[in-house]
Amino acid sequence: MMNDGIKLKWNNLVEKLNNRFDEDLDFQGILFLIGIQELGKGHLKLNKNQKLDVIHIAVCALLSQWDYYEFEGHDEEGWPHWKSTEKLPNLSPKDQDKLIKEAVIEYFS
Asked: Rounded to whole angstroms, what are the CA distances from 59 to 19, 20, 22, 47?
């Protein structure tokens, strides 16, 4: 469970992003936004699998802040790649969401 301080920071961040982008962004939408930023290719038409890849880019970029992933470089199409550092603890889905939300808060700080 998120503590009250993290929950307040998360809610404030979501409100700020919703106002900034005039959207009602949810958790996945925020991850997609970060992934697009990290991809650095601007506006793209993406298929479903590419959209999932963009969210994966976000998670790797976020968790690399705490050395859970290490940036390896870009492939021939310019997509970034990370490798796991094997430091990531075995977490429940709820705890994974909490960890990623904390990383999102830090990312935007």
From this structure: 23, 22, 23, 19
Exposure b/e, 6-19, CB count within 10 A at least 16 = b:
eeebbeebbeebee
- How many Cβ atoms are within 10 Å of 26's Cβ, its own excluded? 11
Q: 27: closest CA among 96, 88, 97, 91? A: 97
Phi, psi of 81 (to 5 degrees): -135, 145
What's the CA gap between 38 and 60, in Å, rounded?
10
Residue 2: predicted pLDDT: 64
**CA gap 31, 46 in Å, rounded:** 15
pTM of the full structure: 0.89
